[in-house]
Amino acid sequence: MPLPILLTGVTGGLGATILHHLLHTHALPPSTLIATSRSSSNKPHFESQGLHFRLADYARPETLLTAFEGIGDLLFISSSERDNATRLVQHRNVVEAAKARGVGRVWYVSLALGGFENGSRAAVMQAHIATEEMLKSSGLDFITLRAGSYSEAFPLFLNWYPSSKTILLPNLTPSVAEGKAAWTSRDELGEGMAALLAKGLAADPSIIPRTDRKIILLTGPVAEPFSALVEAINRGRGTEVRIEFLEPGAWVEAQANDDKGGKGVAWFRSRLLWLQGLADGDCEVVNPALEVLLGRRPETGSRAVERLVRAEEGYTWHQNHVGPRK
Ligand SMILES: NC(=O)c1ccc[n+]([C@@H]2O[C@H](COP(=O)([O-])OP(=O)(O)OC[C@H]3O[C@@H](n4cnc5c(N)ncnc54)[C@H](OP(=O)(O)O)[C@@H]3O)[C@@H](O)[C@H]2O)c1
Question: Which part of the chain is the NAD(P)-binding domain (predicted)?
Fold first, then answer.
């Protein structure tokens, strides 16, 4: 009997899609899967589907040592914690517990900034690069799944709201409006990751983990600029949203002063680095692995944006709204 697969992040968008495809596309018996959450209030939801449930909180190592007992594969979805130092402590807890419990293979969901390289300056990527490094030095068997930037998160990336008449961007060199990204659907990422977990690396011989970080790069089929996403919003909603530019310092101030989601100066400063990375080509590497796993061409970013804004008049993204203004 193969050891069970333990899944983190299954109460979230990506993990729930992976679980759905493991059960319904690949017909894995629920009894071979262990769902986890930081909260045991989620236990009945998973147990009623025949799944096992264990408590796993990256911030509480004792829960991880118990959860990782006797498992084969571990799907490790990165923490949603925003502070990098805290995030890294949590990720170290996961790697150390996996090592202590002799987990068979860790599948770490990382981010695709920089493609196969480690040169991205974006703060969010630093924690991923450091976690990949921890996995490498741990001696664990691991795969890094570098996931493209979610198409569904376009409102966050553009700071677009359904009421927006303009998209404000910082005036960067090269132009951030023309910086291209291989936007990737979160649903399709989940579908592709499930295929890998269900079939293992035998899913297709063309999918070979690359570099010493064992990277499988999962991206959309084409790199498109922000301007293409704005055109897609306008096509989908019949609007005439335009891009306008401000000098970087003024951009941070203007966005933080007037953000409907209440995001503050620190958030937009960090976003400025991400945008500079985008302008420099951090997100533009396209890789065919996701297409191979899906058995069809993944949806492009502009198609996804047009579909999403047509389907839901007030389309939003939960991370756009970080709570009360700080
Ligand atoms: N590629 C991209 O463009 C992009 C964009 C945004 C985020 N991300 C990253 O991708 C991850 C998954 O995305 P998503 O959209 O599925 O996020 P999501 O819907 O916010 O879900 C986050 C999941 O992570 C779990 N989690 C968070 N902190 C945890 C902790 N300390 N210990 C254990 N589990 C924890 C949550 O589980 P419980 O609450 O049940 O414990 C939840 O299931 C995010 O966490 C983030 O790191 C990627």
Answer: 9-151
